[in-house]
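Is this the right way to post structure tokens for a design question? Let me know if I should format differently. Anyway, here goes:
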């Protein structure tokens, strides 16, 4: 296995004394990770400010880190800014607490269970897109945010977010922007110090807290048994070891975790999918053929999903080239080893699927958008961690089936009724690595009704 420390001979900018590789990472983490992989092979060590990280690129080492030796790692320390928002929710909690929460929530996210949400996914999409005016220019990313948020709040929490939508959007926008800034900064000003940015962050948190505690209180005021959604699971769950129930704070943490993890990811993936489709008439033609054959104008449902094979492959290919969950972290909680790499307790890993997804070793002609490559269960022929847009192992995405069903339904419903084109003079859309992989500056489109 090649050895690694980022050296001055590297094509990447020479690490600075103070910041290490922070500048290159901050400017373009995808290219940075790709370059590390290209130059150093299986793993590389680099520094961001005072902190060192190992980037891991070999599928077997990744499998150890995320699956077979996942008990040797935790998530603590990686994203403290986000933890202010999500607290001990599923994404950033660790140990027994995480295991218990995951065990409790998992049954509500199985492929079978989430099928019941398909109808609402179709209804939200249709009601929020059916009034798009002919020839109108629209902010597609924003529209997709609204639809995915509506779907998530209605299906998981039976909550109609429309009345508070602008406030919610503003709060998420502030949090996303500021948390990204803080994660990438060399010196982080603690949130308790009242800088303008910190005040904005705290105000955004307060808005979301108020909304979520309101949802919890409204539900407590209802007599039991009226709802069968995720919120009731959280509120009724009893810990068998001590018969305790979740506090409002614990419920709030899980609700905000789902808010954060569950709508921006799908909205951005769909924005990327439309971006690819608009640039590829051959892909669009195949999609339109599939939509008219399978749907013929009907609202897409869970029954249609297995037949929308090409649409699914468009989503898989989008997730290959634009894995919105482009980076995650782990910290070793004991001395351990990945392949021949010895890790000490406290060592940090930086993990990104992007370099593997773009490797010609696993994907021929990786720069070309080609949904057909996913035909015939292609991924099953690859090593386990060559393609992992939803992560892997016990910390893999709990919402993967929800996300796939939602994205296929949304893509098919909008696509069967509208022809989208980049607005005149639109610049090429490039990725911006925020908390998730966003299209920089959003995507503006003109919409036209698709003739039948
Ligand atoms: C395109 C859509 C999505 C992508 C690409 C995605 C990606 C990911 C990835 C890569 C992870 C693992 C992170 C790690 O290993 O550290 C993750 C975790 C998670 N995702 Fe998603 N996600 C998506 C949609 C969703 C949706 C719709 C929900 C909820 C409705 C959701 C909820 C979660 C939660 C709760 C976790 C933490 C699981 C745990 O640690 O036990 N995600 N997601």
């Amino acid at each position: 296995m090649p050895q690694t420390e980022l050296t001055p001979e590297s094509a990447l900018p020479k690490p600075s004394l103070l910041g290490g590789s922070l500048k290159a990472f901050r400017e373009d983490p995808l290219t940075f990770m790709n370059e590390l992989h290209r130059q150093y092979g299986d793993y590389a060590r680099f520094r961001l400010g005072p902190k060192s990280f190992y980037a891991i690129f070999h599928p077997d080492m990744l499998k150890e880190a995320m699956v077979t030796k996942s008990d040797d790692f935790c998530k603590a320390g990686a994203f403290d800014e986000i933890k202010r928002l999500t607290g001990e929710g599923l994404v950033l909690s660790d140990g027994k607490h995480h295991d218990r929460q995951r065990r409790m929530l998992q049954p509500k996210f199985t492929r079978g269970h989430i099928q019941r949400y398909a109808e609402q996914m179709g209804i939200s999409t249709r009601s929020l897109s059916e009034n798009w005016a002919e020839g109108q220019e629209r902010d597609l990313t924003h529209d997709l945010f609204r639809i995915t948020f509506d779907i998530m709040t209605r299906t998981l929490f039976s909550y109609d977010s429309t009345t508070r939508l602008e406030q919610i959007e503003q709060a998420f926008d502030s949090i996303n922007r500021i948390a990204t800034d803080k994660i990438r900064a060399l010196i982080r000003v603690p949130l308790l110090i009242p800088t303008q940015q910190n005040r904005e962050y705290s105000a955004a948190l307060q808005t979301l807290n108020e909304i979520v505690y309101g949802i919890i209180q409204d539900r407590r005021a209802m007599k039991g048994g009226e709802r069968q959604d995720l919120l009731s699971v959280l509120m009724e769950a009893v810990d068998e070891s001590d018969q305790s129930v979740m506090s409002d704070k614990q419920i709030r943490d899980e609700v905000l975790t789902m808010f954060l993890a569950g709508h921006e990811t799908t909205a951005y993936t769909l924005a990327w999918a439309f971006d690819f489709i608009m640039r590829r008439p051959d892909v669009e033609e195949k999609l339109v053929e599939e939509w008219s054959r399978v749907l013929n104008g009907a609202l897409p449902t869970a029954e249609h999903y297995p037949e929308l094979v090409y649409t699914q492959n468009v989503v898989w290919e989008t997730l290959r080239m634009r894995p919105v969950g482009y980076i995650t972290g782990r910290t070793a909680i004991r001395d351990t080893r990945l392949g021949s790499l010895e890790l000490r307790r406290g060592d940090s890993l930086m993990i990104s699927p992007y370099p593997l997804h773009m490797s010609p070793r696993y994907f021929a002609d990786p720069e070309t958008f080609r949904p057909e490559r996913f035909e015939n269960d292609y991924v099953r022929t690859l090593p386990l961690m060559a393609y992992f847009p939803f992560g892997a192992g016990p910390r893999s995405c709990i919402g993967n089936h929800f996300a796939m069903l939602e994205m296929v339904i949304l893509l098919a419903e909008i696509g069967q009724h509208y022809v989208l084109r980049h607005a005149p003079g639109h610049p090429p859309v490039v990725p911006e690595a925020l908390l998730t992989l966003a299209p920089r500056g959003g995507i503006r489109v003109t919409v036209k009704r698709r003739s039948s």
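Format looks fine. Someone answered above. Worth noting: The domain at 58-449 is CATH 1.10.630.10 (Cytochrome p450). The pocket of protoporphyrin IX containing FE is lined by residues 90-91, 102, 257-258, 261-262, 265-266, 269, 324-325, 328, 389-391, 395-399, 402-403 (CB under 6 Å).
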